[in-house]
Amino acid sequence: MTPKQRFASLFVAAALAATPAAALDLGAMTNAERAAFGAEVRAYLMENPEVILEAVQALEDRRAAAQAAADVNLVADNAAALFDDGFSWVGGNPDGDITIVEFSDYRCGFCRRAHPEVAALLETDGNIRLIMKEFPILGEASTVASRFAIATRQLAGSDAYKQVHDTLMALEGDPTSVALRRIASEIGMDADAVLARMDAPEVSREIAETQALAQRLRITGTPTFVFEDELVRGFLPYDRMAEIIEEKRAAR
Prior knowledge:
Layout: H1 3-18, H2 31-47, H3 50-77, H4 79-83, E1 89-92, E2 98-104, H5 109-124, E3 128-134, H6 140-156, H7 158-170, H8 177-186, H9 191-197, H10 201-216, E4 224-227, E5 230-233, H11 238-250
Parallel strand pairs: 2-3
Antiparallel strand pairs: 1-3, 2-4, 4-5
Helix pairs in contact: 1-3, 6-7, 6-9, 6-10, 8-9
């Protein structure tokens, strides 16, 4: 029996003992009665081991439901910072009926996997508003890339940001100054101006505000998505994202 199963066994035994409190008082039992009761519980579990897995699944389902309910409250409490912070890039259809927020890191492998999935979703569903949160958490290279993207947006606007964002998601190797200068030149930007802007207080403020928001939402990894009122941690393929969108629309 695995540690998880041993835990579940104890959980089930405790539940069996605690439920009929009025009829069964373990504290009032003699040592022999307690031993006999324990033997009966053990025998039942040995004969019906599926109960252990059912108990584990029920416990996990209960925890997931509690987490989902807590996340809904966290999203509601932080709605302004999530959906209208005044600086995060907005793509897709700005007037879409469904809003997706993505917390992303350019050096995150799962974010890179999610990037074409999200792009395909926006292409096939023209009624989605996407908000991108720059959330560098994987070291200095992540921070450099995010600073470059934010500096580009602040200097040249949304279209330039989108080009840089897509390029950084596909960039092989570290975002060195040479690589960043090449990217800036390719989109017609003044590379010196962008690199100088990267350390501006306005860039640092955006990153700090997003990090504070993530902390309030208890987000510790990337990618993390918010679909309207639902917070989803981790990579999602196109099909699953489309299902969530359909569920949100059907629930209205």
